[in-house]
Amino acid sequence: MTPGPQYFHRASQFPNGSLQISSLIPTDQGNFALMMLTAQGLAKVYIYLPVHEPVTKPVINSSSSQVLVNGNLTLTCVTVHAERILWRKDDNGLPSRVDFSPDNKTAIFHRINQWDAGQYQCEAENPISRSYSDVFTLTVSYRESYSGNRFISMAGIICGCIAGTALIIAAMVLLYKRYVLPLRDSQKDTHSVGRYTDRYSSTQGQSIDGREDPSMIYANVVNSDMGHMDLS
């Protein structure tokens, strides 16, 4: 057997025509040709040698540090030398509504819900190795949505209270002007008349204050009536 032009020192030939390559490296990958001279002539055989490297430990990257209900999320399994990527959630497969990239390294979630929360893991493998990522715990939050709705509700309540208060004040002012003020003016006039103008006319046409004791009022008094009178 004669070594070919691309023979290298890590390759060893054996009398049976086999070839052994030690300490494989990525550049050893490729087509190898074996040529044999037989009674029928020259024969050539080609064989492809794949060289695989162990996969690196996968790492799950998330597109968002805070996942909210009804939001979107992308999980990416980052690894090298993997020929196949598998995903798991709580030791089961992912829901059918999750979309995947052609190489299966990226999982895309649309409209996250509470059922998407859990523990995720990706597996990377090739013909010679397999490796698993650390568990990625997905927590779904309601805080922003709830706070936003609460803010909107509170704003509506405050605006309603302000508008209601303004209407009540306006109604009270109108009622005060329409009913209370006229009533107060009427009571004031009546009190004034009762106190100051309740007078009576004497037989001489004189006005007499109604507050005076009627027993002290005398009509048609003349000069000859002057004198002391005993009122006891």
TrEMBL record:
InterPro entries on file: CEA_cell_adhesion (IPR050831), Ig-like_dom (IPR007110), Ig-like_dom_sf (IPR036179), Ig-like_fold (IPR013783), Ig_sub (IPR003599), Ig_sub2 (IPR003598)
PROSITE patterns the UniProt entry points to: IG_LIKE
Pfam families the record matches: Ig_3 (PF13927)
Keywords in alphabetical order: Glycoprotein, Membrane, Signal, Transmembrane, Transmembrane helix
Top-rank lineage group of the source organism: Eukaryota
PANTHER family on file: CARCINOEMBRYONIC ANTIGEN-RELATED CELL ADHESION MOLECULE 19, CARCINOEMBRYONIC ANTIGEN-RELATED CELL ADHESION MOLECULE 19 LIKE GENE Y
Official protein name in the record: Carcinoembryonic antigen-related cell adhesion molecule 19 like gene M
Gene: ceacam19lm
